[in-house]
Amino acid sequence: MLGMPEALFGKTLKEIEEVVSAYKMPRYTATQICQWLYRKNIISIDEMTNLPKSFRELLKENYTIGKVPPLTFEVSADGTKKYLFQAGKGKAIESAYIPDNDRHTLCVSSQIGCKMGCVFCATGKQGFQGQLDTHEILNQMVSIPEFPQLTNLVYMGMGEPFDNLTNVMKSLEILTSEWGFAWSPRRITVSTIGIIPGMKIFIEKSNCHLAVSLHSPFEDERAMLMPMQSRYSLREIIKLIKAYDFGRQRRISFEYILFDGLNVSRKHVNELARLLDGIRCRINLIRFHEVPGVPYKSPDDQLIKQFMNALNSKGIITTLRTSRGQDIQAACGLLAQTRAQHQ
Fold this sequence. Notes:
This protein is 33% helix and 19% strand. By secondary structure, the chain is α/β, with parallel strands linked by helices. The strands form three sheets. Strands 3-4-5-6-9-10-11-12-13-14 form a ten-stranded mixed β-sheet, with helices on both faces.
Protein backbone atom coordinates (compact mmCIF):
# COMPACT_ATOMS: atom_id res chain seq x y z
CA MET A 1 0.00 0.00 0.00
CA LEU A 2 1.44 3.37 -1.00
CA GLY A 3 0.64 6.95 -0.07
CA MET A 4 -0.54 8.49 3.15
CA PRO A 5 -1.44 6.17 6.07
CA GLU A 6 -5.14 5.28 6.13
CA ALA A 7 -7.28 5.86 9.21
CA LEU A 8 -8.42 2.76 11.11
CA PHE A 9 -10.81 4.83 13.18
CA GLY A 10 -14.07 5.17 11.26
CA LYS A 11 -13.93 1.69 9.74
CA THR A 12 -16.75 -0.78 10.33
CA LEU A 13 -16.19 -4.25 11.74
CA LYS A 14 -16.46 -5.68 8.22
CA GLU A 15 -13.83 -3.27 6.94
CA ILE A 16 -11.50 -4.07 9.85
CA GLU A 17 -11.98 -7.77 9.12
CA GLU A 18 -10.76 -7.11 5.57
CA VAL A 19 -7.65 -5.38 6.94
CA VAL A 20 -6.99 -8.27 9.31
CA SER A 21 -7.51 -10.83 6.55
CA ALA A 22 -4.99 -9.07 4.32
CA TYR A 23 -2.38 -9.62 7.03
CA LYS A 24 -3.48 -13.25 7.54
CA MET A 25 -4.36 -12.61 11.19
CA PRO A 26 -7.17 -14.47 13.02
CA ARG A 27 -10.63 -13.03 12.36
CA TYR A 28 -11.22 -12.28 16.07
CA THR A 29 -8.38 -9.74 15.82
CA ALA A 30 -10.85 -7.40 14.08
CA THR A 31 -13.09 -7.37 17.16
CA GLN A 32 -10.07 -6.65 19.34
CA ILE A 33 -9.13 -3.69 17.14
CA CYS A 34 -12.70 -2.36 17.27
CA GLN A 35 -12.63 -2.51 21.07
CA TRP A 36 -9.46 -0.44 21.12
CA LEU A 37 -10.84 2.07 18.61
CA TYR A 38 -14.37 2.53 19.92
CA ARG A 39 -14.39 1.50 23.58
CA LYS A 40 -10.92 2.51 24.83
CA ASN A 41 -10.45 5.64 22.71
CA ILE A 42 -6.78 5.05 21.96
CA ILE A 43 -4.74 7.45 19.82
CA SER A 44 -1.92 5.16 18.65
CA ILE A 45 -1.60 1.63 17.26
CA ASP A 46 1.08 0.90 19.88
CA GLU A 47 -1.64 1.02 22.56
CA MET A 48 -3.24 -2.15 21.15
CA THR A 49 -1.26 -4.24 23.62
CA ASN A 50 -3.17 -7.51 23.14
CA LEU A 51 -2.06 -7.64 19.48
CA PRO A 52 1.33 -9.10 18.55
CA LYS A 53 3.99 -6.42 18.31
CA SER A 54 4.98 -7.66 14.86
CA PHE A 55 1.41 -7.12 13.63
CA ARG A 56 1.28 -3.65 15.17
CA GLU A 57 4.49 -2.73 13.37
CA LEU A 58 3.03 -3.92 10.07
CA LEU A 59 -0.17 -1.96 10.69
CA LYS A 60 1.80 1.22 11.32
CA GLU A 61 3.35 0.98 7.86
CA ASN A 62 0.01 1.58 6.20
CA TYR A 63 -2.43 2.77 8.87
CA THR A 64 -2.85 5.34 11.58
CA ILE A 65 -5.59 5.70 14.17
CA GLY A 66 -6.87 8.87 12.49
CA LYS A 67 -7.97 10.96 15.46
CA VAL A 68 -6.94 14.62 15.57
CA PRO A 69 -7.56 17.31 18.21
CA PRO A 70 -9.51 20.49 17.41
CA LEU A 71 -7.61 23.48 16.07
CA THR A 72 -9.27 25.82 18.52
CA PHE A 73 -12.48 26.45 20.40
CA GLU A 74 -14.57 29.28 21.79
CA VAL A 75 -16.61 29.20 24.99
CA SER A 76 -19.91 31.02 25.47
CA ALA A 77 -21.05 32.57 28.71
CA ASP A 78 -23.83 29.94 28.78
CA GLY A 79 -21.34 27.05 28.66
CA THR A 80 -21.72 26.25 24.97
CA LYS A 81 -18.44 25.46 23.23
CA LYS A 82 -17.81 25.74 19.51
CA TYR A 83 -14.92 23.60 18.27
CA LEU A 84 -13.04 24.11 15.01
CA PHE A 85 -11.40 21.13 13.26
CA GLN A 86 -9.03 21.02 10.30
CA ALA A 87 -10.65 19.38 7.27
CA GLY A 88 -8.10 19.45 4.50
CA LYS A 89 -5.69 22.18 3.51
CA GLY A 90 -7.11 25.60 4.29
CA LYS A 91 -10.52 24.16 5.22
CA ALA A 92 -12.26 23.77 8.55
CA ILE A 93 -15.46 22.41 10.07
CA GLU A 94 -17.30 23.11 13.30
CA SER A 95 -19.01 21.19 16.03
CA ALA A 96 -20.85 22.60 19.02
CA TYR A 97 -21.01 21.19 22.53
CA ILE A 98 -24.20 22.20 24.35
CA PRO A 99 -24.57 21.37 28.05
CA ASP A 100 -28.06 21.61 29.54
CA ASN A 101 -28.43 20.21 33.07
CA ASP A 102 -28.05 16.43 32.71
CA ARG A 103 -28.16 16.58 28.91
CA HIS A 104 -24.85 17.03 27.09
CA THR A 105 -25.33 17.33 23.33
CA LEU A 106 -22.79 17.56 20.54
CA CYS A 107 -23.83 18.99 17.19
CA VAL A 108 -21.57 17.57 14.45
CA SER A 109 -20.89 18.46 10.82
CA SER A 110 -21.12 16.03 7.93
CA GLN A 111 -19.66 18.12 5.08
CA ILE A 112 -17.22 20.96 4.49
CA GLY A 113 -19.60 23.70 3.50
CA CYS A 114 -22.88 22.76 1.82
CA LYS A 115 -24.38 22.70 -1.67
CA MET A 116 -28.05 23.03 -0.65
CA GLY A 117 -28.05 26.83 -0.94
CA CYS A 118 -30.56 27.67 1.82
CA VAL A 119 -30.72 31.46 1.73
CA PHE A 120 -30.65 31.95 5.51
CA CYS A 121 -27.66 29.69 6.23
CA ALA A 122 -24.10 30.83 6.90
CA THR A 123 -22.71 27.44 5.87
CA GLY A 124 -24.58 27.58 2.57
CA LYS A 125 -22.88 30.87 1.75
CA GLN A 126 -19.52 29.07 1.78
CA GLY A 127 -20.59 26.69 -0.96
CA PHE A 128 -19.64 23.03 -1.06
CA GLN A 129 -15.97 22.27 -0.36
CA GLY A 130 -15.94 18.53 0.25
CA GLN A 131 -17.31 15.48 2.02
CA LEU A 132 -16.22 14.41 5.48
CA ASP A 133 -14.98 10.85 5.78
CA THR A 134 -16.51 8.66 8.47
CA HIS A 135 -13.53 9.12 10.78
CA GLU A 136 -13.76 12.91 10.38
CA ILE A 137 -17.42 12.85 11.43
CA LEU A 138 -16.78 10.69 14.50
CA ASN A 139 -13.54 12.48 15.37
CA GLN A 140 -15.58 15.55 16.31
CA MET A 141 -17.09 13.49 19.12
CA VAL A 142 -14.12 11.57 20.52
CA SER A 143 -11.52 14.34 20.33
CA ILE A 144 -13.11 16.81 22.73
CA PRO A 145 -12.66 16.67 26.51
CA GLU A 146 -16.43 16.46 27.03
CA PHE A 147 -16.69 13.14 25.17
CA PRO A 148 -17.19 11.02 28.33
CA GLN A 149 -20.13 13.23 29.39
CA LEU A 150 -21.97 13.24 26.06
CA THR A 151 -25.55 12.01 26.22
CA ASN A 152 -26.79 13.00 22.75
CA LEU A 153 -25.48 13.52 19.25
CA VAL A 154 -27.20 15.58 16.56
CA TYR A 155 -26.19 15.79 12.91
CA MET A 156 -27.19 19.43 12.57
CA GLY A 157 -23.85 21.11 11.91
CA MET A 158 -22.30 22.08 8.59
CA GLY A 159 -23.59 20.22 5.55
CA GLU A 160 -26.55 18.05 4.55
CA PRO A 161 -26.11 14.58 6.09
CA PHE A 162 -27.99 12.73 3.35
CA ASP A 163 -25.82 14.37 0.69
CA ASN A 164 -22.97 12.40 2.32
CA LEU A 165 -25.10 9.33 2.87
CA THR A 166 -22.49 6.56 2.76
CA ASN A 167 -20.20 8.10 5.38
CA VAL A 168 -23.07 9.25 7.59
CA MET A 169 -24.66 5.78 7.58
CA LYS A 170 -21.29 4.18 8.37
CA SER A 171 -20.85 6.56 11.29
CA LEU A 172 -24.30 5.63 12.62
CA GLU A 173 -23.47 1.93 12.30
CA ILE A 174 -20.29 2.43 14.32
CA LEU A 175 -22.10 4.51 16.93
CA THR A 176 -24.92 2.03 17.52
CA SER A 177 -23.32 -1.40 16.99
CA GLU A 178 -22.23 -3.60 19.89
CA TRP A 179 -18.74 -3.81 18.39
CA GLY A 180 -18.68 -0.02 18.13
CA PHE A 181 -19.68 2.63 20.65
CA ALA A 182 -22.91 0.74 21.47
CA TRP A 183 -24.97 3.91 21.81
CA SER A 184 -28.75 3.67 21.79
CA PRO A 185 -30.21 5.07 18.53
CA ARG A 186 -32.47 7.17 20.76
CA ARG A 187 -29.44 9.28 21.65
CA ILE A 188 -28.87 10.30 18.02
CA THR A 189 -30.81 12.63 15.71
CA VAL A 190 -30.05 13.20 12.04
CA SER A 191 -31.38 16.35 10.38
CA THR A 192 -32.14 16.77 6.68
CA ILE A 193 -33.74 19.33 4.40
CA GLY A 194 -35.53 16.38 2.81
CA ILE A 195 -33.23 14.46 0.47
CA ILE A 196 -35.76 11.75 -0.30
CA PRO A 197 -33.49 8.90 -1.50
CA GLY A 198 -31.28 9.34 1.58
CA MET A 199 -34.27 9.62 3.89
CA LYS A 200 -35.66 6.33 2.61
CA ILE A 201 -32.39 4.47 3.23
CA PHE A 202 -31.96 6.09 6.64
CA ILE A 203 -35.50 5.24 7.75
CA GLU A 204 -35.14 1.62 6.64
CA LYS A 205 -31.61 0.94 7.91
CA SER A 206 -31.33 3.05 11.06
CA ASN A 207 -33.42 3.51 14.19
CA CYS A 208 -32.04 6.95 15.01
CA HIS A 209 -34.36 9.94 15.29
CA LEU A 210 -35.15 12.00 12.20
CA ALA A 211 -35.45 15.79 12.03
CA VAL A 212 -36.69 17.52 8.87
CA SER A 213 -36.01 21.18 8.20
CA LEU A 214 -39.43 22.57 7.36
CA HIS A 215 -39.53 26.38 7.83
CA SER A 216 -42.77 26.78 5.88
CA PRO A 217 -45.73 24.49 5.11
CA PHE A 218 -46.22 26.20 1.74
CA GLU A 219 -44.30 24.87 -1.25
CA ASP A 220 -43.59 28.27 -2.84
CA GLU A 221 -42.37 29.87 0.39
CA ARG A 222 -40.21 26.90 1.22
CA ALA A 223 -38.70 26.99 -2.28
CA MET A 224 -37.78 30.63 -1.76
CA LEU A 225 -35.94 29.74 1.45
CA MET A 226 -34.60 26.34 0.35
CA PRO A 227 -33.90 25.93 -3.38
CA MET A 228 -33.76 22.10 -3.07
CA GLN A 229 -37.52 22.22 -2.51
CA SER A 230 -37.83 22.33 -6.31
CA ARG A 231 -36.20 18.89 -6.50
CA TYR A 232 -37.68 17.24 -3.41
CA SER A 233 -41.11 18.71 -2.81
CA LEU A 234 -42.63 19.01 0.63
CA ARG A 235 -45.60 16.93 -0.55
CA GLU A 236 -43.29 14.03 -1.45
CA ILE A 237 -41.34 14.38 1.81
CA ILE A 238 -44.52 14.14 3.89
CA LYS A 239 -45.79 11.27 1.74
CA LEU A 240 -42.58 9.33 2.43
CA ILE A 241 -42.79 9.90 6.19
CA LYS A 242 -46.42 8.79 6.30
CA ALA A 243 -45.51 5.57 4.48
CA TYR A 244 -43.53 4.29 7.49
CA ASP A 245 -44.49 3.23 10.98
CA PHE A 246 -41.81 4.74 13.21
CA GLY A 247 -43.08 3.14 16.41
CA ARG A 248 -43.17 4.74 19.83
CA GLN A 249 -39.45 4.81 20.47
CA ARG A 250 -38.41 6.74 17.37
CA ARG A 251 -39.02 10.47 17.16
CA ILE A 252 -39.90 12.50 14.08
CA SER A 253 -39.45 16.24 14.47
CA PHE A 254 -39.73 19.23 12.19
CA GLU A 255 -37.29 22.13 12.55
CA TYR A 256 -38.93 25.48 11.97
CA ILE A 257 -36.82 28.64 11.90
CA LEU A 258 -38.95 31.70 12.63
CA PHE A 259 -38.74 34.62 10.20
CA ASP A 260 -40.57 37.82 11.06
CA GLY A 261 -43.30 38.69 8.54
CA LEU A 262 -42.79 35.48 6.60
CA ASN A 263 -43.82 32.22 8.31
CA VAL A 264 -45.54 32.95 11.64
CA SER A 265 -49.12 33.79 10.65
CA ARG A 266 -52.41 32.07 11.44
CA LYS A 267 -52.49 30.64 7.92
CA HIS A 268 -49.17 28.95 8.64
CA VAL A 269 -50.60 27.42 11.81
CA ASN A 270 -53.60 26.07 9.92
CA GLU A 271 -51.54 24.69 7.04
CA LEU A 272 -49.04 23.04 9.39
CA ALA A 273 -51.92 21.32 11.17
CA ARG A 274 -53.30 20.10 7.85
CA LEU A 275 -49.90 19.03 6.49
CA LEU A 276 -48.82 17.10 9.58
CA ASP A 277 -52.18 15.51 10.33
CA GLY A 278 -51.68 11.82 11.04
CA ILE A 279 -47.95 12.10 11.82
CA ARG A 280 -46.89 11.55 15.43
CA CYS A 281 -44.32 14.32 15.61
CA ARG A 282 -43.21 17.53 17.23
CA ILE A 283 -42.21 20.94 15.90
CA ASN A 284 -39.05 22.60 17.20
CA LEU A 285 -39.28 26.35 16.77
CA ILE A 286 -35.95 28.13 16.35
CA ARG A 287 -35.29 31.85 16.56
CA PHE A 288 -33.43 33.14 13.52
CA HIS A 289 -30.04 34.51 14.49
CA GLU A 290 -28.43 37.16 12.37
CA VAL A 291 -26.19 36.04 9.52
CA PRO A 292 -24.16 38.67 7.63
CA GLY A 293 -25.78 39.51 4.31
CA VAL A 294 -29.11 37.85 5.16
CA PRO A 295 -32.06 40.29 5.40
CA TYR A 296 -34.29 38.26 7.71
CA LYS A 297 -34.86 38.77 11.43
CA SER A 298 -36.60 36.86 14.19
CA PRO A 299 -40.13 37.75 15.36
CA ASP A 300 -40.49 39.27 18.82
CA ASP A 301 -41.05 36.99 21.80
CA GLN A 302 -44.77 37.76 22.04
CA LEU A 303 -45.43 36.69 18.45
CA ILE A 304 -43.30 33.56 18.93
CA LYS A 305 -45.32 32.63 22.02
CA GLN A 306 -48.61 33.18 20.20
CA PHE A 307 -47.46 31.04 17.27
CA MET A 308 -46.28 28.24 19.57
CA ASN A 309 -49.49 28.26 21.61
CA ALA A 310 -51.61 28.17 18.45
CA LEU A 311 -49.76 25.11 17.19
CA ASN A 312 -50.07 23.36 20.54
CA SER A 313 -53.79 24.12 20.57
CA LYS A 314 -54.01 22.26 17.25
CA GLY A 315 -52.62 19.18 18.96
CA ILE A 316 -49.08 19.49 17.58
CA ILE A 317 -46.44 19.25 20.30
CA THR A 318 -44.45 22.43 19.74
CA THR A 319 -41.45 23.72 21.69
CA LEU A 320 -39.10 26.66 21.35
CA ARG A 321 -35.42 25.78 21.24
CA THR A 322 -33.38 27.80 23.71
CA SER A 323 -30.89 30.05 21.95
CA ARG A 324 -27.33 29.12 22.89
CA GLY A 325 -23.87 30.49 22.18
CA GLN A 326 -24.95 33.90 20.94
CA ASP A 327 -21.65 35.47 22.00
CA ILE A 328 -19.49 32.98 20.03
CA GLN A 329 -20.95 33.27 16.52
CA ALA A 330 -23.76 30.81 17.11
CA ALA A 331 -24.83 30.47 13.47
CA CYS A 332 -23.25 27.32 12.08
CA GLY A 333 -20.43 28.07 9.65
CA LEU A 334 -19.46 31.52 10.87
CA LEU A 335 -16.43 30.40 12.84
CA ALA A 336 -15.08 28.28 9.98
CA GLN A 337 -15.77 31.09 7.53
CA THR A 338 -13.94 33.61 9.71
CA ARG A 339 -10.89 31.34 9.96
CA ALA A 340 -10.81 30.78 6.20
CA GLN A 341 -10.88 34.54 5.61
CA HIS A 342 -7.83 34.99 7.83
CA GLN A 343 -5.69 32.27 6.28
